[in-house]
């Protein structure tokens, strides 16, 4: 500025205030509006827009007059005050507060009377006495709501319409109409739109925070606690008394919510299902925050009995192994059970495969066998845990006569 010869010019400048008085600004001066005429039209029940049209002014001038107590209020035909007009209002309902509630907040007589526990007639009389325009009866309360703000609260923040309506003092149907007008997608009615389905409680970490969301999320997590402690989905379905396909669908829903697989499906019929690391973390979080499900099966004992109980129909196989261990040969055990020797031998092999070692040291069905240390350990576990078994079958087997 110095190089351009403007060294004497001030760094900041604003026009003098007396310029406003001589400027030709659009619109009329607020003091030039006939206030008594505006109040007369308001007392006839006209809206501010209709009053501005008849008075040939703007709605801003009308609201400017409404915010000020008129000096000369035209009286109606009933000059004498009624008994309701002489009824005192609560101390907190001062004229200034009444004006703020009606003019600024656009409150109805019904809502003010309900909030302050006062009759509508005394309240209406007080409004007329103070020169405050009485809201039209049965008029819909209108709120100036920013559609972008509503979209952010409802869609981004996942708040419910009743929660937003309670904050701004309106009703959920009004918000629903506004959302439909501005193209805000509404969630389906029902459990999916409840607060408990939209937000996880504080302190819930992943994957539990995502698993409980949505309609029925809490129930799916509780059923997962049963599935995770069962040897198979079929076993869990029997405990819950539901179809296996229904339970598979709920587990698949949880896996989509958590983002990865929770349960490794068994590839063979005799194998036990296993939990993935994510499934074990979800089970631990569910037990911590929701508590263990009382309907879940008890925890399996340590190996080898725990591994064997993961088989299908483990009780029958354990029973046949126990009978074989208490008899001298496989053939004698088969005679005691009333089955063929290969049936007993197949049950013992299945139990040995699950236990991970030899339980009976044997050569064939007719030769005497010996219980290995692993087999004696399994028998002790069965006796300690009370595994149900038939009465101890013992018999002497002899080959059939020719």
What would you note in describing this structure?
- It is a single chain.
- With 402 residues, this protein is mostly helical.
- Helices cover 48% and strands 2% of the residues.
- The protein contains 21 helices and four strands.
- It has helices at residues 19-22, 35-43, 48-54, 59-66, 95-104, 109-116, 120-129, 147-156, 161-168, 172-181, 195-198, 208-211, 217-228, 233-240, 244-258, 277-290, 305-308, 314-326, 330-337, 341-355, 373-385, and strands spanning 263-264, 274-275, 360-361, 370-371.
- The strands form two sheets. A two-stranded antiparallel sheet has the order 1-2. A two-stranded antiparallel sheet has the order 3-4.
- The N and C termini lie far apart (131 Å).
- Residues 71-85 and 389-402 have low confidence and may be disordered.
Number of helices: 21
What class do helices, strands and sheet pairing give? Answer: mainly alpha
Largest sheet: 2 strands, antiparallel
Anisotropy-based shape? elongated
Distance between the termini: 131 Å
Portion in strands: under 5%
What is the topology, as strand order, of the major beta sheet?
Answer: 1-2
Mean pLDDT: 78
Give Rg in angstroms: 42 Å
Percent helix: 40-55%
Count the strands? Answer: 4
Stretches where pLDDT falls below 50 for ≥5 residues?
71-85, 389-402
Integer count of domains: 4
**Order of helical and strand elements:** HHHHHHHHHHHHHHHEEHHHHHEEH
Key terms:
mainly alpha; 402 residues; two-stranded antiparallel ribbon; Arc Repressor Mutant, subunit A; 21 helices; elongated; disordered C terminus; 4 domains
